[in-house]
Design goal:
Elements lengths: L1 E8 L4 H5 L11 H16 L4 E4 L3 H14 L4 E2 L20 H12 L14 H17 L4 E6 L1 H12 L6 H10 L8 E7 L7 E8 L7
Parallel strand pairs: 1-4, 2-3, 2-4
Antiparallel strand pairs: 1-5, 5-6
Helix pairs in contact: 2-3, 5-6, 6-7
Amino acid sequence: MKKHIYLVRHGETTYNKRMVHQFFAVPLSEHGYKQADKTAEAVKVLQPDALFTSDITRARQTAEHIGKAIGKEPVFEPLFRELERPETVVGKHFFDPRSIFVFLQMYIHANDLHWHMGNEENFADFRERTHRAVEFLENTNAERIVVVSHRYFIKGMLTTLRSRFTGSMWKFVRESVLHAPLSNGGITELIYDSENKLSPWTIVRINDTRHLAEL
């Protein structure tokens, strides 16, 4: 069975604009709602038959716009949530000294499966969740699947697929957290072909934002 999977990053929030670590319930900004509308128009053309979303507010609101356009209710799936940060950085700027210290510690301890600073996911937890998300999509009975998620999670999934579930933790962290960002409302397309046992996953396009050009 061949599947097309479309990973959509949620629309913009004011916290995205200000480069601040977000709370669970941060909503879309006015511009984010416009991005969600344009993304919904682009997704409608793809004729998806399944719609999943992170249950975090900014993703849920984006998925509601898409669901309205395609006539489907979004299905909440916590597997697609963003990387869960330590509470100490939530609400702080990315370059706040505390944020830098916390993420430096997370990076230093990336290979320690049991290390935690607080109640956050460590990178081993996060990587394992991307594995489970890939398996979830492989086992979903649909041919065109839309998933509304978040920047780091989408990048984490791409890193997992590129490395075929192997590779060092350092590489996973660099590619999923430190490399180039994904745009709000961008669409990343994957193909899963269950008959290709050697290489069932293909990355077709990453961060396609052509539908947002007029905004």
